[in-house]
Protein 1
Amino acid sequence: MRTLQTVFWIRRRLAIRGLTSIAGATNLVAGLALALLAALGALALAIGLGVVLHLASISTDQGAIQLGWTITLYTIAFFAVIVPIITGAGSSAFDPSRLLIFPVSRKTLHRLALGSEFLSASHMVWYPALLASAVTGILLPGPTRLAQLAVLGLFGFLLVVWSQAASLVARRWLRNRKLRELAAVIGLVLVVVLSVAPAAVDITAENADQRIEEFLTIPPWIEKASGVFPPSIASQTLTALRTGELGTAFMQVGWLVIWLVAGLLIGRAAFDALLASGGEPVKHSVRRRESRLTTVRTRILDRLPSAVGAVADKELRYLLQSGTGRTSLLVMPVMTALPTLLAGRHEGMTVLGLDLQLAVFLGVMIYATALTGYLQVNAFAWEKTGFASYFTAPVLPEEILLGKNLGVWILNLALGVEGLLVYSVVRGVPDITTVLTGLIVLGSMSVLLSMMGNFTSVAFPENRPVSSLTSSASPTGTLMMIGCLLLGVILGGIVVFGAALLRIPALQPILALIIFAVVVCVYRLTLLPAARTLSDRRDDVFHALGAG
Amino acid sequence: MGDTPGPAVETIGLHKKFGDLVAVDGLDLRVEAGSFFGFLGPNGAGKSTTIKVLTGMILPTAGSAAILGHDVVDEAVAAKQITGAVSEDGALFERLNGAEYLEFVGRMYGMERDTISERSNELLELMDLAGDHSKLIVDYSHGMQKKLGFAAALIHNPKVLFLDEPFEGIDAVTGRLIKTMLDELRQAGVTIFLTSHILEIVERLCSEIAIIDHGRVVAHGSLEDLRAQVGSSGSLEELFLDLVGHGPVSGRQLSWLGPGDP
């Protein structure tokens, strides 16, 4: 208990210490705003699942009730176990390896880690959904059976245990950087595909009911294979308890307990294995060859002023090695193909007078910009001690910022071109007006993000490993990025809707170009103040990156 | 170096504060061009902070500092053009390989690509890093990182070289290599500004020494000058302890340390 108190004391001290600066206080306010947004997301998830379960529960069909529970519990399990691994939430949780030098047993440390896991922010996303399912699936349909609530509670406990076990296993056995990045990239692509998959059901079609039913019907082989997993077992248990099949329910609870014990044992084994290796990541030798792409990049950047080119070149190398950069390049084709395919079913459809195809293409370009948003608002995140190199070299701070911005702009352009190519393959090459408008909107938003990012990167810097897929941007930076993207969408909207209202499509690229010119002028005006801020606040950036 | 005006390094009333903490407190220093200067002091005395100010990594709070007559704030670019620095913590971009990093540094100094390539190959060869040219810096050992940092500091042929704890955490082989190179640089007329806690090395290499404490110079001159100041004929370590040792440590005892209960 004393150790637990000490851990909480340290965390409280660090949290309070973090608030004793203007940046810390600003981050607190921004963090609260972001927490509110996350809470709204969690609420939406809870309401969505609650409605699904309620609709299933008012039915007298046992199959429908079980299907409702299955969908709900698998969704909750996905957010509880899989999402924390993908977002790396597990690796940022309580790190017991720092307490190894103290006379605390590993068993105690494991308990501390598990206790800390229950309070992890990543689980706050699905706790409301579990609560909502208890209300709509057990309390509302009545009669309330305590046994059902107990089973749901056991399921929630099991999820936390498995979440910790899975995160620890991922941290221990996915030590190979490349393997970890690959797994995370595949996971992210899966999330993206799964999150847009329901949209594949065309609810405007004539036989919509049948198609929804087809979509919601689980194929028998999947149902059989998934029957051994806790969400299916819990679903069967809850249904059996409702229909009074106590023998079946008792047996299924036994399976849940076996899963729970297995999770605890695996978690403990992974915990010990992780501690045995000191919790440090294994270094792997990485050798790279000069590719043709490198040669082309070098030739382009050679034409720039030496320092700006050097920084842009370095930035691009980092971006192309980073988890975020690689994921962006892989996710972009998926996120272009899916909406383009869906929009293809509605040939000639307009949205507020705007052609749907154009809207989709613009959406793709905006998405390409959004992918690099986190890189822009925390631009020095990966530099660590390298940050000092900028200041020992005879270059001006504005050259550093311009070089870094240029690196991200090139990545943004590459993502835009990638989107254009995939769109052209799926739907055919869009007309030149659309292409120009889309690319100019992308450019405007990218410059807009850089303009704001040049200040947030210096005022609210956060350290972040290159291979990390989590944002690690400060709450203020994240909030500013969201604001910037919204502003970009509004500006893009003015361009396309303005031209659509005037019925002059050719006006789109001209309006876009005017907005681009304005954004570039403002960027140019803010570059020197941003450079001065960088020069003045370099001590703080050194400190934040752990380099000073 | 003979035509170079003024001292290689000069600070006048240099101050650096971090919040309420005064790291450098009115430092007055003059290092002649071509000298091998040892900058000593206990932990927290302000050595690294002074080097960071002189190399432009951080800005001074007050006072001035100049490298070969170029003010480090007002003429920062000109001052950095003639300066090389090996920082205590490496200051390397870990996700580049050795050759890429040297190319980056060379381009930051406005050098031609061909020259960078030529010098880079030579430096990597000399530092015994050529075999690992495609390995990322993050995978380098501490000694390899030190050597690469050293190579990066030399690629543009600096006139003043700042070395912050270059011998910390390196093996004897690398240490010998660095000492040999420093000797050659001194003969070539490069001004070397060195901080190190290994006083034997400072005693052997440096022609001029300054000792600071609490951000102020407490002694400055050749080893003989320092001996005269303290009135002792002992080693540099003994002089150092006399000047900044803050009293004897042998008589101090912890009241609870002993064979009793923990």
Note: The beta strands of chain A are 350-351, 354-355.
Protein 2
Amino acid sequence: MLLRQEALKLDLPLTATRLKRFIKDYVEKTKAEGAVLNLSGGIDSATATALATLALGKNKVVALSLPERETRSALDLKHTKMLAEKFGFSLETIDITNILQAYYKTIPAFDPKERLCKGNIKARARMTCLYYYANRQNRIAVGSSDKSESMIGYFTKWGDVAADISPLMDLYKTQVRQLAAHIGVPRQIIAKPSTPQLWPGQLAEDELGIKYEALDLILLGLENFIAAEEIAEQLDLPLKLIEEVKARWLSNEHKRRAPLTMKMEYRTIGADFRLPYTPP
Amino acid sequence: MPDKITIALGQISCQVGDKKHNIEIMKKKIAQAKKAKVDMIAFPELSLTGYMVRDRAYELAEPVPNGPSVQEIEKIAKNEDIHIIFGMIERNPKASAILHNTSVLIGPKGYIGKYRKMHLPTHSVFEEKRYFRPGYQAPVFETAAGKIGMMICYDVYFPEITRLMSLEGAKLIVCISASPSIRRGFFETLTAARAMENTVFLAFVNLAGVQDGLQFWGGSRILAPSGSLISQAKYDVDDFISATINYQDINRVQAWAPVLRDLRPEVYTSLRKKTENL
């Protein structure tokens, strides 16, 4: 298998059609009123929101823009409005600074210097808002995690990844970019550097130390059981980098699964039960 | 055996675990088939229950032919004077915890026979060996609609099954399927190959719709003994197709592609040994 950008090329009309059908089918089978999404203004959430709107219609989709004082970006807020105007879904902008301040003040062990722990509170507070709307308005929570970030665990456990369905989770970031352009997500959003918005100035590619174009091909190789040595040779990248990506992929399985339990009986949640997703 | 029959394929989306609902969907397609003067209609793999039933397989299984669903479909076949092929989870009559992934053939005069899936995929999203015991026979049935063999989905990867049935005299092989989207390219090639290499008609009927995040790709088709496409349903969504096939075409194709005449039986002895020692 050749690890080249062409290997990640999508049949875009087919991909868009199938993902729209997937969203619509799930909403119908669960008898939900529509969908709710957290819209940061970045490419993944913009693409998921646009897809949900194309699938369900503009009156069935609510997007939540949840800025907070430390990471508020005028550009992101401008982009959320631009997308809402283009696709016609409802946009609710809620400043969550006060919610976060309450956490910071209330938790005795809170340490503002631990920026990852603090940042994860932000992602989980956004998740709480998302699920409040989902519960209150009988909507499904549509996630926007992509395959690149899900594989390496670059997300907050029970935070930004939390959703009822995640239509983009089998598409690498560079594939999400292709799809975004195809369904009409504005160019400015697609070209913008990705950020999880956990602390000011955080940029995904800087933090990961690798461009998504390279990361996606490494992950494609790992997904296809290609040895780290061969991936390094094909991509002309240091073996150490490939091994680091592989280690991240393997060590983050705990973030992708239901909590591990001790097997005590014949049929155990997680290990044994295999039930259909949407019973009649 | 008739020279010509009209066959229909009911490409449906099933409700997982809801047999009543799925029989109602089948009835609508059967009504459509009657209008098109169809002799035989086929429905996809596990069309009675839906494919992604997982652990619910145990509660949804029924004996064949004495279970209530087979009996209900028998009544429909008699009333509508039509042959019906559909897929279901069969409960083994001798050991009730043993299940089979089964294709059932019913004619206007009642139950004709069944085929238990021989190759059970247990890789990727498929978990069939977890639930089912494989079949060990590839029977061929003499019916008023011709001499018919059946197989199920992943069986199409194994040319031995269609070969066995064509050597038994099958003229039409019906492959009922629940194939998800990423497999489309393989099935489009393999179904044509199985028809061509045996010079038989092949009807492939696939599920449509989404179950547990799997998009079943539809694309049901009727193939001539030359492997060429006679009719094809839409991709991904529910559809209905029908076509009249002329069994005499088999003789014409066999004249210029006499594959059965040219079989080399000694190869099979070696094939068996090599497979056992794999």
Note: Residues 5-256 of chain A form a domain with the Rossmann fold fold (CATH 3.40.50.620).
